[in-house]
Predict the structure.
Amino acid sequence: MTTTELRHQAEIARLWVERLALTNFRSYAHVALEAGPEPQVLIGANGAGKTNLLEAISMLAPGQGLRRAPYSDLARAEGDGSWAVSAHVHGHPGPVDVGTGFLAADGTGERQARVAAERAGRIVRINGTPAGSTSALGDYLDLAWVTPAMDGLFTGPASERRRFLDRLIATFDAGYRTRANRFERAMQQRNRLLADGVRDAARFEGLELLMAETGTAIAAARAEAVAALASIMVERSERDPGSPFPSAGLAIEGVLEADLERMAAVDVEEAYSEVLRDNRERDRAAGRTLDGPHRSDLLVFHAPKQMQARLASSGEQKALLLGLVLAHAELVARRHEGTAPILLLDEVTAHLDEAHRTALFGEILRLGTQAWMTGTDAETFSALRQKARFRRVEDGAVTGLVAASD
């Protein structure tokens, strides 16, 4: 193949956003921009609207986006409460037009109207045709992100680490989010029966069987993902022993996960169903279900120092987090015929020294991913000069191309 043909083939294999348009989204009344498959760097002062652009891109995937904000909160304050994000993307099946948005409820904006609008959810269109749910977006793009709010991932509650792991799994397991949602809905219904004082066993049995089936599947997927990520981590360490991103030791801590190591899945399902049945009164007193995958935790260790990540310095924790996300991107690429996910890296160079920045950019280029990165100082991205597209973001507007030395 010629160089041009090879480059064209590489672009086809990549996931990337070619055109992006926002209407009444956060600080933007309207903005449109075009991009290439190379890394994209957004430079601007704090509050300029850089993160809002990343959040808009994150809405091209299932879920609530990188801030997990209610859909109504994404609307521009001066607008009518509605918002829209549209894009022409190069996805898994090829080029496609993707659109998503939220329609404000009619009326005076009272609480009841807002609740009704949130329950209606957001609209998704693929090539102009309505999609049944946001889960359809997962057929086109894989995204992963790192935000400043994730700096406390290893010291915060277990729920944050579970959410982090679940989001990673969903990028290469199309049915995972559906199973997780089914488990969550069944558990909520069971909790409601407990709170309402229901003691009719027949009312619980179907819900608990569903929880046992989906809960065991969730635990199995988490255990498999953790093992795969750990393997990638070892390979990365052997490939580049001097990497500033230390290898992370990983484990999943949970009763179901432990049971799956010594029992067949069908036996784990039965045992979990029995636990739920036998502990209804205990759960009723607690006001919630106390057993299940919603209680598991992702354990992360600084492998070279043989130290729990929560005890590492803030700089070491940032390096561990980036190493995990890069390992995940590599795992996704292997499972998707070399196609890495799009990375959204908000203020990623903050608190990183030059060695870490250079290594990070090298990893991004090696993966061939379209990474969208934000920062306040273009000079911190100087290693990407001539290799990335730079833009200035100011007062909620994308004003143009800037050089890395500006």
